[in-house]
Amino acid sequence: RSLLETARRNPGLDDFGDDGWREPFRILLRALEEEADLTFWGRVMTRSDLLGHLEVRLRITDWFARHPETADEEIAAPVFVTGLPRSGTTIMQEILGADPRARTVRMWEARFPVPPPAPGDPAPDPRIAKADALCTMQDRVTPEWASMHKVGGDLPVECIEFTYASFLSDAFSASFQVPSYSAYVAKADPAPAFAWHKRVLQLLQSTGRPGHWLLKGPTHLPFLPQLFDAYPDARIVLMLRDPVKALASVVDVCGTLFWMRSDDPFSGDSYGHFLSVEPVVANLERLIGWLESGAIPRARVQPVRYVEFFADPAARLADLYAGLGIELTDDALAAMQAYLARKPKGKFGEHDYDTGGEAVVAAERARFRRFQDYFGVPSEL
Q1: DSSP letters along 180-207, please?
Q2: Rounded CA gap, 242 and 291, in Å?
């Protein structure tokens, strides 16, 4: 009650929209109290974050009430970058986002989407600095975070950053040990989360935008059929990287995220479907099954092998754009190459992590063999 009353007071709004978010919100709060083992600082950060998500929900609901035509916006042929976490989805979104025709969601737009940015707005938008101060707080709590995943007020973000306000999001499972909430989300229909996702895009698009939407989210991987239900003409960039290497990196990253708010970061199995071998194998087996059965349209899925792509990005970009059905202009190629030149590997520090001994790697390699053979993914270890 205190959270809801405070969230309402800040913007002076009362309507949170449909009530579908309330059940997952209650389950999340209970899990945070009973399972997350939050430190004092963790509780302060978490309360602040939850108030922010609630306020976003209030403001977006209010915008649609005052501008009902926003719901008529068509989100045409969006491009989604997905794959296992730590498989190169972030760098791929940043490269493709250098194309001036691509439209990404920036951190400040995810945190403070109302009013939506419009041509002619004063620049820089003051919300950029505000968002930057909030999102880089993690770098100050755990400085090694900057070498794992660079964030900033004006940088592109994963889709989970603007599905928080649906309260049906793996984002919470990746930040807290909340296994009961994670289990609830795993069994829930993701349609309401995708509906909120589209609502945010409609809002941001309503004041005009060039080109095509470019979105990113590893957490879309287990829900690709539902993604296509929400966006039938979506196009997928599927990042493929050695899953043994990717999995070890995810464990290290999530351990850091959990530790930001708790002294017992691995007290439960929150986010286990991306942290443990067997659930990850199951996700990848389902992906192969969907492609084989036609449950997701194979022609709209463009596989990108990480090692192969970065051996010759210019050539691979031409292939990728052809597969996506987007013209690769000289200006777009030059902008993406310039981005690559400006961001050498390790710019923000090296992310070191342990992949385990030979026996562990061999056992995991055997479990991932079908996936690697099916997509031709080379081993990197």
Answers
A1: HHHHHHHHS-SHHHHHHHHHHHHHHHTT
A2: 20
